[in-house]
Design a protein that fits this description.
It is built from 4 helices and 9 strands. 20% of the residues lie in helices and 30% in strands. By secondary structure, it is α/β, with parallel strands linked by helices. It starts with 23 loop residues before the first strand and ends in a 17-residue tail after the last strand.
Length: 189
């Protein structure tokens, strides 16, 4: 995590606090997660160099940069057009390779690049979207916070075409995982 400069992913107003273990707003009612949460989720995902990882919720691009620093080939989805454009430009400006950004509805995943060795969802889901489970490779892991007010971190490991091992972990608080796409002009798709 020390290889990725977190201050680049924050608004200048928070730059001097970038390395504190707390979340910060990034606009559009979204946040960059605190470093502990990023590390926790990344550890549960168990990323290995060369893994194909789908991230749902690009946000600032910080989690995608961490995954890329670990050697993953990252496909990241963002539903807010303004955040998508900002993160895509920042990741390119920082020279972070092996990250492909998409403006998409995260509930649908990115089936055209599946299967994935890992899928990480960086927003609190009311339920686990079935399309994400179907996009995991056998042995692949889905890390997702599930719940309404408070979410519990879950890891689903695909055992066979139709069987998954579920594990539940600590509680967290995330922004809500929402369907659709939010365009810059304010229109929803």
């Amino acid at each position: 995590m020390m290889a990725v400069p977190r201050h680049f992913f924050l608004d200048k107003a928070f730059e001097e606090h970038a390395y504190e273990d707390r979340p910060f707003p990034i606009g559009h009612k979204q946040t960059i997660s605190q470093p502990f949460t990023v590390a926790y989720m990344t550890t549960l995902l168990g990323v290995k160099p060369g893994d194909r990882v789908l991230e749902v919720g690009t946000g600032s691009g910080y989690q995608a940069a961490i995954l890329a620093a670990l050697g993953a080939h990252v496909y990241t989805l963002e539903r807010h057009e303004a955040l998508y454009l900002r993160a895509k430009a920042l990741l390119a400006e920082l020279g972070i390779q092996h990250v492909r950004c998409f403006l998409r509805d995260g509930f649908k995943g990115l089936p055209e690049y599946a299967p994935y060795d890992g899928i990480i969802v960086t927003a609190g889901a009311p339920f686990v979207p079935e399309p994400l489970c179907r996009q995991l490779a056998i042995g692949g892991r889905l890390v997702i916070p599930v719940g309404e007010e408070v979410q519990y971190m879950h890891r689903y490991t695909r055992q066979t075409e139709s069987e998954y091992r579920e594990e539940a972990f600590e509680s967290f608080r995330f922004v809500p995982f929402l369907e659709g796409i939010q365009k810059q002009d304010g229109n929803e798709e």
